[in-house]
């Protein structure tokens, strides 16, 4: 097991004091301790870019953290800007290694988990695996190599490998007038036509939708769970909508929506009257430990308008939920609904299983 305090000490000793990344549950106990000079971003490529700028202006080495699923987003700036053969920008990558061959994990993590080491090798990134105390020495040596050669280096950390520490964060104030995501989805399913198609985003959103559909035994509503491909749910919904007569609803999280925000401009242009985009706004990456999405200041009404959606609805208290939801569902789309939610899910929340079957049922006429 790895003690996050010891890892932090090594970073500090090497004068690494700027941190940026997209949160991951595997790294939560570490990233919660990055205090000063820490910017949580919404796309791993953004983290690499921010770190690059930080190096250019300070000559100091930045630390970037992410789940290995985010390596895909990060590869472009890593290979075409930071790489030794381009600008040779040094950085330390701390990567949560989901789907590592040693650990049991969900289907969406298995392939990426198996190829993570090969990907790093292909990218020419030297790395070590942090499992036990002694591995920290290897990490220290890698940082020295990074400094000397002005190259990116990485460490991989598997699930449950960081010693859990007590939460240091003060609990957030809860707005009791807000609705919970679970209760909203229950209400939504009661109100929609039986042949509606729903594409749900990564994490709790898909898990809760799956739980409600299973426990209430809804037969005809067709879900497509985006267990991976974070940030792409609305584009998948658009692809469905282009050739569909049914109502098509995308259930999105704010972390996911911000990851690929630009796609909303394409959706608003090409989606039809039955396209409905619902955003659960909690200003956090709740599914991986409630880390901030740094988006308190964002105005989704203006964004939606600016990106070409003509219709925007807002639910910001439980008491108006049913009436606004009714208008949103009955009026023509493409339309966007922002639902401000309070965090919290149910206990023992399951996960969508048998994804091949999910696909077959979704595609059946
Ligand atoms: C490309 C990528 N980066 C990071 C993750 C890890 N991850 C899974 S769910 C999640 C948080 C999603 O946040 P949000 O969309 O706001 O939904 P919430 O968890 O708040 O319901 C993250 C960061 C991922 N699956 N894929």
What features would you describe in this structure?
The protein is of the alpha/beta class and 365 residues long. It has two domains: 4-158, Thiamin diphosphate (ThDP)-binding fold, Pyr/PP domains (Rossmann fold), CATH 3.40.50.970; 179-363, 3-Layer(aba) Sandwich (Rossmann fold). Helix content is 39%, strand content 19%. The strands form three sheets. Strands 7, 8, 9, 10, 11, 14 and 15 form a seven-stranded parallel sheet that branches. Strands 2-1-3-4-6-5 form a six-stranded parallel sheet, with helices on both faces. It has a two-stranded antiparallel ribbon with strand order 12-13. The protein is elongated, with a radius of gyration of 21 Å. Thiamine diphosphate is lined by residues 22-24, 67, 69-70, 73, 201-205, 230, 253-256, 282, 284-288, 293.
Annotate the secondary structure layout:
Blueprint: H1 4-13, E1 19-21, H2 28-31, E2 38-40, H3 44-58, E3 63-67, H4 71-82, E4 91-97, H5 107-122, E5 126-129, H6 135-149, E6 152-158, E7 179-180, H7 181-191, E8 197-200, H8 204-215, E9 222-225, H9 233-241, E10 248-253, H10 254-259, H11 263-270, E11 275-281, E12 284-285, E13 291-292, H12 300-306, E14 311-315, H13 321-330, E15 335-342, H14 355-363
Parallel strand pairs: 1-2, 1-3, 3-4, 4-6, 5-6, 7-15, 8-9, 8-10, 10-11, 11-15, 14-15
Antiparallel strand pairs: 12-13
Helix pairs in contact: 1-6, 3-4, 7-8, 7-13
Bound molecules: thiamine diphosphate.
